[in-house]
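TL;DR need structure tokens for one chain.
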Amino acid sequence: LLLLANGASEAPSIRAGTTAHRAFTAALEEVCRSLALQIVADGEGAQRVIEIEVRGAKTEVAARRLAGTIATSPLVKTAFAGGDPNWGRIFAAAGRSGVAFDPSRVDIDMAGVPVLRNGKPLDFNERAASNRLLAKHVLIVVNMHAGKAGARYWTCDFTAEYVRINASYRT
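>> reply
TL;DR here they are.
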């Protein structure tokens, strides 16, 4: 995305800190978010958008690394393709991220269903959770309870169709 303003339109200037600036920033963020989600949803063979939200990390760098590692894990992405509420794959991906954390403090919610609290699995209705994971947009929240930093990462599921598409051509 490239945004340019050369003054040729003769529209009034927007000054930082003003109501107009806040309104413009909010509108621009909304457009960028929409474009980002459309790109993710248009992934080859994608059935759903997965939103990984990491909360309570020590630093923003740690939060981004955790969210990115979870979101790009093939095991996590294939579990979502099948609607599998496998919190263990999310927890394992966080462990592979290289970010030090206390596993006994981690909470995980999958599509609004609490599945892990203080590093311990919860009893939950697996069928109901699976049905919620089959929605077009699925939110996963991982709370590290280690600080105040957070990050959000959008990805899509890995489907058999994704594999078929990418295995059937050469670049």
